[in-house]
Design a protein that fits this description.
mainly alpha; 4 helices; single chain
């Protein structure tokens, strides 16, 4: 991957993680707010069938998403500029590739997919 593109993707991932953590902090109050990360499109918080239970369900999942993407994006940004992981991975042959690919791509992608599945299930359950 080109270094410039790599940096952009990692910064976007880091930003998404920070936004997820911001959303988690806002959800600590126990109230829904207009946020596309936790609410379905064209719906309002008043339309939620059980707001308290929905927030209790989605809040810890949002925290996991935020932590995973901040770690991945932050690690990726640091690696883009220093090359620590990339240099180590090149000396380890296939093991290094698996660690680098898994840590920077597969794990965050799996967490994002998992969060999306949880969110769709919650939307079906808590919104008409």
């Amino acid at each position: 991957m080109d270094r410039g593109f790599d940096v952009v993707v990692n910064i976007i991932t880091l930003g998404c993680g920070i936004y997820a953590l911001y959303t988690w902090f806002k959800l600590l109050a126990g109230k829904l707010f207009d946020n596309s990360l936790v609410m379905p499109r064209e719906r309002t918080a008043a339309q939620c069938l059980d707001e308290e239970t929905y927030v209790a369900y989605i809040r810890p999942r949002t925290l996991i998403l935020g932590i995973a993407t901040v770690i991945s994006g932050g690690t990726g940004v640091v690696d883009s500029y220093t090359g620590i992981i990339r240099d180590w991975a090149q000396t380890q042959d296939w093991l290094g590739f698996l660690v680098e690919f898994g840590a920077l791509i597969l794990v965050p992608l799996a967490v994002i997919i998992w969060y999306g599945v949880c969110l769709v299930r919650a939307h079906r359950r808590y919104w008409p």
